[in-house]
Amino acid sequence: MALRLYNTLSGEKELFVPREPGKVGMYVCGVTVYDYCHIGHARAGIVFDVIYRYLCYSGYDVTFVRNYTDIDDKIINRANREGSDYRTVADRYIAAFDEDMERLGLKKPTVEPKATDHIGDIITIVQQLIEKGHAYESEGDVYFAVESFPSYLKLSKRNLDDMLAGARVEVGEKKRHPMDFALWKNSKPGEPWWESPWGKGRPGWHIECSAMSMRFLGPSFDIHGGGKDLVFPHHENEIAQSEGANCCQFVTYWLHNGFVNVNSEKMSKSLGNFFTIRDVLELFDAETLRFFILSAHYRSPLDYSDQNLREARAGLTRINEALAHLDAVLAAPAGASVPTSATELTEKTDTLAQRFREAMDDDFNTAQALGILFDLVRTLNRTLAEAPAPDEATRSVLDRLRRTIDQMGEVLGLFRQRPADWLAARDAEKARNLTLTTAEIEALIAERNEARKSRNFARSDEIRAFLLSHSIQLLDSPQGTTWQAVGQ
Questions:
Q1: Binding positions for Zn(2+) (predicted)?
Q2: Among 50, 52, 240, 305, which one is least packed by beta carbons within 10 Å?
């Protein structure tokens, strides 16, 4: 099966055919660096990190560009409130972004340009647009003339006439048309500025991405990504100014990840449901957050809640427990027994890589890929329960399975810790605020297991009740008994 991806421009899944065989150029809009990143940024970062990883896994030579917007009204306003300058604010939050993305396990892009390093490129494009009749200068500002570009709004599928009904020209703007957008802004007193043919000023938001993508990927490239909130106006305006300047198709495939809601409501500071990545990582580890985000298809809405994160952690725990058991079996001497489910395990192992590729080739369906992994874990648990010390033939299958799961983990950015280490860290976190130590809890669980074997159910229930009184909930399953702190 060949890779097919959903193209926002066409509104359909399309066969992926790069412009140059074996190579992919991909640009993803980065952050405006004026504050700490929120969970919406985490989703976009993780989604396009997995797409980048999968393209590399598929054998492509990928040039991945993700920018920093380091000059913007929000950055200037933050600097003014702090009594500092825009560069101090931008540098601080670039460093914070890098730290957050590293904690989430993102690979570094090929290039991470800053807008202010490409002022010359921006000025050149604006001059080209003026020369070709797509832009005009007005008292130090330069605007793109949307009526000069007949296919404007082809990405968002909007109608220019319908949009005019609610459009208006803000005070101080010198536009010919209400929908025209700024390419270059005349700097106000006290604002940072750069020299230009139109006087001292700074770039508009949209033009910087055209300039940086063209610099590193050329006038036409394969994939442009970002959140759905960027379809209009940002990406729509990128298309207009880029194609207006270069007279060729800007991007072949446009990919957009879905929104993050919080408890089924749109995330908003005014609603008090706004969470930074750092807020979330105080409560849940980075692997759990990543696993949660990948458990939904990237184009679907994602509902953030503590309960959904706890369920993601429980799912990740099941996988890590199975992998830790598998690692222990592979480290032990071979046995002589052959499990009755070995044939099923062999069949699923033989097709695992193919099934994983089919899921990912279907518009990067990470939710389906994780479903395949859960199915495999169930079979693995049955196999190891029937034969704790499998024979050499079965061990060979298990070893091949482990290596394939490692490859899947590399694509998804999961299982970066040894399973036993992840489980130990989880247990330590669970025990942090408890009145009982982990050793005491495990000892009571062992005593309860013995009581159940001897059919002393009264003592078993007594231990469960005692642990619950200390905020410890027991979870019984065919694989044994685990525990969690109440509320975790």
A1: 29, 209, 234, 238
A2: 305
Residues 366 and 325 in one domain: yes
> What's 64's domain CATH number?
3.40.50.620
- Is 43 among the domain residues? yes
Asked whether the beta carbons of 291 and 414 are under 8 A apart, the reply is yes
**Annotated binding-site residue? 238:** yes
- Check the annotation: does 325 bind a ligand: no
Categorize the per-residue pLDDT at 476 as very low, low, confident or very high, splitting at 50, 70 and 90: confident
Record the pTM.
0.89
> Which tens digits make up the pLDDT trace of 130-150?
999 999 999 999 999 999 999
Question: Looking at residue 398, which CATH number applies to its domain?
Answer: 1.20.120.640
Extract the tokens encoding 85. 């300058």
User: Which range marks the domain in which residue 387 is found?
Assistant: 306-420
Give the per-residue pLDDT at 3.
Answer: 98
209 is in an annotated binding site: yes
160, 198: one domain: yes
269 is in an annotated binding site: yes
As a whole number of angstroms, the distance between CA 197 and CA 208 comes to 17
Question: Domain tally for the chain?
Answer: 3
Give residue-wise pLDDT tens across range 155-195: 999 988 888 766 665 656 689 999 999 999 999 998 999 99
Note whether 392 and 334 are within 8 A (CB). Answer: yes
CA torsion 398→401→403→408, rounded to 10°? -160
- Assess if residue 299 is contained within a domain: no
pLDDT at 180: 95
